[in-house]
Amino acid sequence: MLSRKLRPGQRTEVWIAEVANGLTELVYSTDALLLEAPNWAPDSRGLLLNGDGLLWRLDLRDEVELAVVPIDDLPPINNDHVLDPNRGLIYLSANDGHIYVAPIEGGTASRVTHDPSRYHFLHGVSPDGATLAFVELPRGEFSVPGRLALVSSAGGETRYPDAGSRHLDGPEYSPDGEWLYFNTEEYASGLGHAQLARMPAEGGGVEHLVESETVDWFPHLSPDGKLGCYISFPLGTLGHPPDLEVEVRVVRTTDWRRIIWRFPLFGGQGTINVNSWSPDSRRFAFVAYPLQQA
Question: How many alpha carbons lie under 13 Å from residue 238 in its C-beta half-sphere?
């Protein structure tokens, strides 16, 4: 898998949304590098994103500055990376199909997964740092449904909770560790019609969170568990492709049907693939990829 690049006339825009008032701020823009999937750094002073196969830190202090996070023994990465802030670790999916772990500030990476016949697309780490939640696909078989998989963060045998038979993506733990949130086609009205759902982390029935006509992906909960955000693609979208008119939505986790804020943008793939909430639950980051008007 090759790293994504900007199209001619396209730029990366990194935005921050304030959930108290719905205001947004453009904090970084470039036409030189396609950046994806912000994580909010545990120190609250920056964002971690991937671009060109590398992990980058976008420092948000007095002077905004972008710099590579130096990580040795790490193959080129994609936009699936999550933080274990309590242990100062970041887990990353690489383009070789495996999951790696490294210190958040940089250092040496080590590989967590070892099955060469599978792709491992990481999306969640349990609050205690013990378990990783990811989507598994047979290597080279993107046409088959992705399935929910769990593995110890130290490596070992993979477990497969029953989350249905249709395509599933974006599994992420709730802040209390009780639930796994994800998008699934289990309730689809047609091919590709992903919907938001959750299931008990220890196993159990799948709960449909909201019924919509849009194609909804990547539910992310704020650290206090009170808010959620996700991305909606137009009806008929297959997968989560780039370069579409999409909408990032914010809800209260007590009622996923009522949308508090809507943020329309040109983007999709890379916009909010991973959890981008700030540690104080007041803000979250997302990425747009506007094209220059002809």
Answer: 4
